[in-house]
Amino acid sequence: MTIRITFLTVFCLMIGLNLASAQQIQMPQASPAAQISQKVGLTDVRIEYSRPSMRGRKIFGELVPYGDVWRTGANAATVISFSTEVKIEGNEVPAGDYALYAIPDKNEWTIILSSNTKLWGAVGYNSEDDVLRFKVKPGKTGQKYETMEINFVDISDTGTSVAIKWENTRAKFRIETEVDDIVMSQIKELVIDQQPTNPGLYYQAANYYFTNNKDMDQAYDWINRSVVDDPKYWTVHLKAKIELALGKKKEALESAKKSMEMARDAKNPDYVGLNERLIKSIK
Predict the structure, then answer these.
(1) How far apart are CA 228 and CA 226, in angstroms?
(2) Within 10 A of 118 (CB to CB), how many other CB atoms are there?
(3) Strand partners, 106
(4) CA-based Rg of the chain, rounded to a whole angstrom?
(5) Distance (Å, rounded) from C-alpha 96 to C-alpha 6?
(6) Of 51, 110, 162, 247, which is most buried with the most CB atoms under 10 A?
(7) 205/210 Cα distance (integer angstroms)
(8) Strands of 159-177's sheet, edge to edge?
(9) Model pLDDT for residues 192-222, shown as the tens digit of each residue
(10) If you average pLDDT over every residue of the chain, what do you get?
(11) Nearest-CA neighbor of 58 among 122, 125, 123, 146?
């Protein structure tokens, strides 16, 4: 009987301890976690960080001392990830995950990408893990940022800038990705070499050539193949724009009018408006 009671008591105590350890009071975090992501060209860029707030404190030069390595946020180190190789401020960086550190100073910041993403903040940071270091000039913001913010700005077809903002200070750096070589390689493989029967591929190739001001005669040949096989209001609209670029105003006007009629039938006011503006520009 004594043995039975002893085992039962120990068992109950273990269960009680497990329940106690599992119970926690859920409260808002002082520096809540955040994730942002952006498709840049053909590359996925993601940033995970925690967002501290000012709470009446002076930030740069005091809470974040000048000249010290800063985790670029709060809690665990901020991590930036790239799905393909990128260029950051002109420097090549392989695809992967990196801890994003900064050394703020009054007139210049040093931005650091480290291969060690497992640290709590900058505790244990070692410069031997640096993959890249570069300098940027900080600027003043037009408003006060009570809570630290990282976001993507100045987005283009091939790049974006990462802006770090807190208090009245902003620092940003540029990310560029490879697009043209990859797209041109696909066009060669799928359109030039194969002579496809899919009109959508001809439209895509023509659109890329037109948008990037490449061989307009080739773009015209491709869009004509697409329109002959499967005319759509958006493909006919592209045909009109290419014709205008080639100086074929009469043909461009006819194509734009046809595209506008097709868009009306499809009840697409956006393309009706696009064609109206195109027609106006031709006249």
Answers:
(1) 6
(2) 9
(3) none
(4) 28
(5) 54
(6) 162
(7) 9
(8) 91-93, 86-88, 159-177, 139-153
(9) 999 899 999 999 999 999 999 999 999 999 9
(10) 93
(11) 146
Token pair of 147, please? Answer: 């809570």
- Distance separating alpha carbons of residues 153 and 162, to the nearest angstrom: 6
User: Sign of torsion, CA 8 10 11 12?
Assistant: positive
How far is it, in rounded angstroms, from Cα 7 to Cα 30?
Answer: 43
**What is the longest distance spanned by two Cα atoms in the chain?**
104
Looking at residue 272, its amino acid is: V
Cα gap 72→31, rounded to integer Å: 12
- Asked if residue 161 lies in contact with residue 152, where contact means CB atoms within 8 angstroms, the answer is yes
Query: What would the two tokens of residue 8 be?
Result: 């039962």
Span 110-149, pLDDT tens digits: 999 999 999 998 999 999 999 999 999 999 999 999 999 9
What pairs with residue 110 in β-bridges? 103, 135
Which residue, among 151, 177, 144, has the nearest Cα to 55 in the 3D structure?
144
Separation between Cα atoms, residue 202 and residue 95, nearest integer Å: 31
Amino acid occupying residue 12: C
- Taking residue 274's Cβ as centre, other Cβ atoms within 10 Å add up to 20
pTM of the model: 0.81
Q: Is the backbone of residue 217 left (phi > 0), alpha (psi -120 to 50) or beta?
A: alpha
Q: Give DSSP secondary structure letters for the chain.
A: -HHHHHHHHHHHHHHHHHHHHH-------SS-EEEEEEEETTEEEEEEEE--B-TT--TBTTTB-TTS-B-SSSSSPPEEEESS-EEETTEEE-SEEEEEEEE--SS-EEEEEES---SSTTTT--GGGEEEEEEE--EEEEEEEEEEEEEEES--SSEEEEEEEEEEEEEEEEEEE--HHHHHHHHIIIIITT--S-HHHHHHHHHHHHHTT--HHHHHHHHHHHHHHS--HHHHHHHHHHHHHTT-HHHHHHHHHHHHHHHHHTT-HHHHHHHHHHHHHH-
